[in-house]
Amino acid sequence: MNIQSEEGILKRQTRSIQTEGRFGDIKENENFRRFNYRSEEKVYKESMLYAAGRNIMKYHRFIHHEIEKSEGKKEQMSGAKNRC
Fold first, then answer.
1. DSSP SS3 for 4
2. pLDDT at residue 84 greater than cutoff 80
3. DSSP class per residue in 29-51
4. Does residue 60 carry a pLDDT above 90?
5. 3-state SS, residue 8
6. SS3 34
């Protein structure tokens, strides 16, 4: 596939949108501007730490949301029992 073809241009545009979201989020929310180390190995490790931290935060938000949903259902059920 030629990157200058219509198909190649569309794939490049889609790819840039997909990756920008993650990097933009780290730059904006984590105030990340540059790596602290220069060697390829250390930069890789630092990027993996950021990725792991991001995944932990996503998991935390998911669990917190699930707990809130279950507590809301419990309150609705207890409120319905009190009405009867």
1. coil
2. no
3. HS---S-S--SHHHHHHHHHHHH
4. yes
5. helix
6. coil
